[in-house]
Amino acid sequence: MILPLHQLVRERIARTVREVYALADADLPPIVVQSPPERALGDLAVPLAFELARRLRKAPRAIAQEVAAALGAIPGVARVVAAPNGYLNFYLDRPAFLRARLAGELPRGPAPAEKAVVEHTAINPNKAAHIGHLRNAALGDTLGRLLRFRGQPVEIQNYIDDTGVQVADVVVGFRELEHKDFEAVRRVADSTRFDYYCWDLYSTVTEWYESDKERLKIRTATLHDIERGGNENARIGAFIADRIVRCHLATMGRLGIDYDLLTWEGDILRLKFWDHAFDALKAKGAVFRQEQGRLAGCWVMTIEDESAEAEGPDAGEPDAEDAAESREKVIVRSDGTVTYVGKDIANQFWKFGLLGWDFHYRVFDRRDGGHPVWATTSDASAAETGGAPTFGRAGVVYNVIDTRQSYLQKLLKQALGAMGYQREAERSIHYAYEMVALSHATARALGYDAAAEAGRPFVEVSGRKGLGVKADDLLDRLIDAAHGEVVKRNPDLPAEETRRIAETIATAAARYFLIKFSRGKVIAFDIDEALSFEGETGPYLQYAVVRANNIFRKLREREGVEVAAFVAALGETPADSLESADGDELWDLVLEASRLDEMAEQALRTLELSVLAKYAFGLAQKFNGFYHKYPILNEDRPDVRRWRAAAVAYVRDQLTRTLDLMGCRVPSRM
RNA sequence: GCGCCCGUAGCUCAGCUGGAUAGAGCGUCGGCCUCCGGAGCCGAAGGCCACAGGUUCGAAUCCUGUCGGGCGCGCCA
Q1: A424: exposed, middle or buried (C-beta count within 10 Å: 0-12, 13-18, 19+)?
Q2: Is the CB of A206 under 7 A from strand B?
Q3: In the structure, what pLDDT confidence band is assigned to residue A306 with cuts at 50, 70 and 90?
Q4: Residue A345 CB in 7 A reach of strand B
Q5: A194-210 tens-digit pLDDT
Q6: Number of domains forming the structure of chain A
Q7: What SS3 state is found at A276?
Q8: Crossing angle (nearest 10°) for helices A610-629 and A538-554
Q9: What's the Å distance between residue A662 CA and nucleotide B13 C1'?
Q10: Within-domain flag for A14
Q11: Are A504 and A619 in the same domain?
């Protein structure tokens, strides 16, 4: 890892600059450590002299030279050069650097101790997951892994909207269209792919509503039944939600995505979390009852509007009252029922431990027979008797949810702020990303006539219409494609291993594809593109690691030598080959491999996980180029051979770690 | 109407806290298997970084405006 070295360089430069120019800390601009565009220019670059030029009234070049001369020795740094244009360039001690990385990583900087709650997935439990949900889960899961990598405690939550209209719609489908009671629904669930069955039923119900709007009254009545509980519709709804959630967990499990806690909306209702949050909001005046106008009788929250505030108060305008009213968001309807926003506010309060109330907890499932997936429950008698871990009470909350919900997520922050929880409002982070749509070609392949949308750049996925690529279908197709390739290349492998490898490859293909785009970009999903295993894809990355592993496997088989032996021997291995120009490419590879921590921090700072994907791909590219050019097994010079093997071992380890952060494993062969 | 996001090679996209010569994949064209496995490697062609101003020693990157495109803005969730 490279960050500790960055820190050291920053500290030494700061100290030197303070001494040489008699500057106070406050006058010192932030010291940026960069990576030079070419390795020949150095290993680390600092453009500080440009920043200081104006204040010191000196040419950047002169400043760089003075700082370089006064810097003195820095452990791990071989030499410092002031570039003619003013950059301060650092060349590292190559052999020492590689030896240190292989001997075990240096201690990292202090990690944030506060717990991070990451909520992701949150699919309505009424149909199969599709690729849009997969983007959410892949981003959320990778975010969680990055936070853990940094050393921060992480809790992954999945919100289950088991009492919403979408579940109600499927209940309506079973009852009104298929005339099924609870037992009949159970029989369907036991004998079909239930999430697929409901996928179709859901779109059928949607059409059924559209042909006669009067039927929407049945939906409303069913929704009320579900919210009230204690009736057949509520039983069916709860059953559907439970079974579909299990389908979702299985689907996500195929991608290595896991959860600590499932938060059920029904429990929030039954435990009256909203009532507690409502009392608190009323007490603070964060919500108030609107007595007049079109929102009379509603409890509303005033929405902050930056542009309006900037204009200043001019209440004299004739339409000022209307404008003010339009900036009020209804939290409790005039009939006394709470809106979705209200439930979300209560949940957000709970996540920070601000509600003063807690759920009971039960074990919902065990992954791979071990790790429990916990779920909330409102039934104390159903709670796990052995006690549950502490959930919630987060220091920071990441809600992974697509950008269309930005408005609502902003309200959550505001509610916290209005309650005086400024810190929590700041640490209430909406991880926003753009939706997944379908390319025209893929929409056509699904049999969808997109003629009406021919002029648009993509075709929007619609759960209601049943238009979309189901997650499991995509994974199945990826596995089939990967299976074909594995068989072609490894015809003699046992069927079971072939299958396992194909699954590992398919997972990487899917996950890399979902991570590689920056979050602000709409993915126009194209099935052919996603099924590709060449170029910038997950399998390309795996292939690089498999190649590296093969080298060490051969070394073991042919010569009985382990990697550890090479590492142990580095101490007395001459390093001329590494320090000379002949070692430039090897060194470039090692240095790039060490930047994982830097990239992980950048990804977290910007919430741009594509940074991690691009880094992994670039490193794999570098390795493949090196692999092609420099032999290891067939290298005769023992010192050169050792350094190469050591470098490849380090790169292999770092690339494996990077893949793991993206939820990808490395197959035994490819 | 207001708010947020996007506009970079034929296509899909990177481009870090403003920094050194704007990159990658796909596609096209041309090479490379006696070798650690070709899911690979090497090379070529391909750019008004949407447009116009501004800030700066320095702008694809920051600011303002314009033009395209997408998404939000409900007593739905």
Answers
A1: buried
A2: no
A3: very low
A4: no
A5: 999 999 999 999 999 99
A6: 4
A7: helix
A8: 40
A9: 19
A10: yes
A11: yes
Asked if A539 CB < 7 A from strand B, the reply is yes
Domain that holds residue A62: 3-92
> Helices (DSSP H) in A175-289: which residue ranges?
182-191, 194-211, 216-228, 232-254, 265-270, 273-284
A393 domain-assigned: yes
- Residue A485 beta carbon within 7 A of nucleic strand B: yes
List, as one string, the DSSP characters of A76-129.
Answer: TEEEEEE-TTS-EEEEE-HHHHHHHHHT-PPPPPPPP-SPEEEE-----TTS--
Give pLDDT tens digits for A79-126: 999 998 899 999 999 999 999 999 876 666 677 889 999 999 999 999
Residue A504 placed within a domain? yes
> Is A125:A245 a contact under the CB 8 Å cutoff?
yes
**Nucleic strand B contact set for A 61-80 (CB, < 7 Å):** none
**CATH number for A591:** 1.10.730.10
What local confidence, expressed as pLDDT, does residue A103 receive? 87
- For residue range A170-198, list pLDDT tens digits in order: 999 999 999 999 999 999 999 999 999 99
Domain presence at residue A494: yes
**Predicted pLDDT at A316:** 35
* Strand B bases with any atom < 7 A from protein Cβ: 2-6, 12-17, 19-21, 24-27, 35-42, 57-58, 69-77
Distance A528 CA to B30 C1' (A): 26
- A194-211 and A165-172 helices cross at what angle (nearest 10)? 90
Report pLDDT for A108: 67
Of A residues 128-157, those with CB within 7 angstroms of nucleic strand B are none
Whether A451 shows a pLDDT value over 90: the answer reads no
Question: Does residue A202 sit in the same domain as residue A245?
Answer: yes
Q: Is the CB of A239 under 7 A from strand B?
A: no
Chain A span 384-443 residues with beta carbon within 7 Å of strand B? 403-408, 434-435
